[in-house]
């Protein structure tokens, strides 16, 4: 698709993204562009802020409950830096920025990895919170930390990184790339086989069930311990772990689960056009999982307000230091001596 001479014309003549035969004309293109741009910039700043403290603060870095979030934030940061800018360029100009098949494959690879790894990390974190709150002594031994903490996180991230690298870059397929479409309309030929059912079962159903079951079970277990059998649980100590998990899970309840359930139902009934209008908006707003994830991770940082005030104060001091100043040199009248005062 050729670009017009002015940006305003481009914004009104580009191809409208479609999903399953339904367009998103209800959301103006310029509004979609600015929604993604503002959200991506804010999410990038928040990601850098959270990762800085999680990686360079020794106490936060050693906290086992932060490790899954650190891995998720790093993977999510790649999506914010590499995936979303390509989406923004295509939204604005109606064509892919770099029209090379490898870039299209890389684009699809980064999006798929972030979209599959984050739910599984949250699902594992939901299970791990049970151990941290109700059986925290299990992690006192280094052997248990390796078996039940480091290895699961490494397997979840490493498995999907390697799997989709093979699918997107090494499986020989004959693809036709359309540089006016999202991801250049690229999709590996693997999805035309029984692997599509496997991915739907593992990445869709399994992740959703894990997040829903373990997060709800955590709430029920805490309430049961406190009010039914009156066993001691240090709620003040573990309140932050529980609430942090619930905030993270909430974005998946809103933006992830409905789309997965709709996809499963469409596969069962065999009608791909079923719920197309919702599927359009669900697909569009699914990127807000990446945008909102750093913000729900802010709760891991203690004394957050104090840290933000210090950053703003330093920023204001630097601005005042580099701001131009006007110095008025007052001439002394003839015959008079300047009087100076020595201030200790």
UniProtKB/TrEMBL annotation:
Major location category of this protein: membrane
Domain of life (superkingdom): Eukaryota
Subcellular location: Membrane
Domain named G-protein coupled receptors family 1 profile: residues: 46-297
Transmembrane segments: 33-56, 68-86, 147-167, 205-224, 245-268, 280-301
GO cellular component, one term: membrane
Keyword field contains Lipid metabolism: no
CDD domains: 7tm_classA_rhodopsin-like (cd00637)
PROSITE patterns linked to this entry: G_PROTEIN_RECEP_F1_2
Keywords for this protein: Membrane, Transmembrane, Transmembrane helix
Protein name per UniProt: G-protein coupled receptors family 1 profile domain-containing protein
Organism: Adineta steineri
